[in-house]
Input
Amino acid sequence: MPNGSMVTGEARRGDRREREMRGILDTTAFQSLMRRAWLAPLRKADIDVSELPEGCGIEDAWKALTTVRYAQSFHSPRALRSSIESRDGWHTVPVSLQRTLDEISALTRKGSDLDLRAHERKGRGFITQQYVEEMVCNLSFDGFEVGYEDLRAVILGDRPPLDAAEMLALNFHRIMYGLDEFENAPFDEATLEGLYEKLTEGTQGPLAAADALPRSPLFEHYAMECGRDGCGRPTLRIVVDAATGCASDPPRYPLMNSMLVNCQFWRAALFPSCNNLMGCVASRLYLLQQGHPVFRYVPKIRILEKWRVGGYGDAAAFTFEEALATAEENGDWTPYYDVVMRLMLKEVRAIARSLSVKARVDEDVVAGIDRIPGLAHRQRDVLRSAVLIPDKTFRISSHQKTYGIAYSTARSDLENLADAGLLSRFVDGQAYSYRAAACLRAVLSSREEPRPS
Output
């Protein structure tokens, strides 16, 4: 039975520590420190003892700061913690992170300038450099090796896939191209299992077996966590809970929640293989359903890996090791998320700049359409689409339906463009179909502005 005086002594020491903590919190110096942490993530090394209340050391100030921030933070959803026996991860949203999230959201939301530019070029051949690099990165974590140029050639249809890795890459691209058909689908186990079937369709022989713990940029973190806590084997239900918000209180910013969706595929082998690619698919489906379709082209995992190896230099306020050390020390993922989102914004801006340049080039080519005499407005629309989406197929029946015209008129529209060398015709079943002629851009670019008389 505990000694009464011992209990009283412990209670007094607890009361004294609480009074000391309150004494620190009420000082002007500590309030100034709190404002700094509210604006952007702080390191313990950023605290100068000369700025602290009299008699307060750096460790005491850091502990008080962490205690206050923890009370105002987002926590790992309880359902996730109980299912994977994980430590209590948490993060705050300082001003720097909120501004970054707001800008990413504005750039990538449905109907944004970037979304419209990407959508009007959304053919099977529309890819970005970051998009291909992201696939290479995810395939490598899933145990496959494929070169950038080989993967690009397969996606663009220059040659068929030669092995399982290239087939997976082609299937992933097909899923991203057709992701809109899942916009209103339920985010549940059946949908995810169906997407896994699409991803692995046509692969010959056994795929690389999933490890007990899938490889990822955070592999060492999860390996240590599972080794210490006996990490369980969650089911797809945990991904669904993370995406639908059932596990989160309060609800997180969609982009932040997409990271939570992604990382569930790193904690355990949810599928027999390809867990990194499936994490990529699931998080992009989630963002599409949250109104951010552009993310099918934006890298996420490659950002982490490039940051981990120092590829962003001074653009990252914390190194990967510093951010993970903070998370390991007290569960605080704020520096990690702050850097990741800044780097993601950097990549989104790069995609926007690239598409802006491409748009200006395309506009110059499209301008040549108006300099071709005798075209109907329907034919000009077809040529514009052919310029922006060279692999798009035009069919007489769909052209007729789009413009509400007679079949003979629709046939004449497309046949005349083919006769002029602007479209190429090919046999599709028992009828002709049409695509952009190989020389279309060159022909339109050669059309000079008429000189004033």
Summary: The beta strands are 74-75, 90-91, 394-395, 423-428, 431-436.
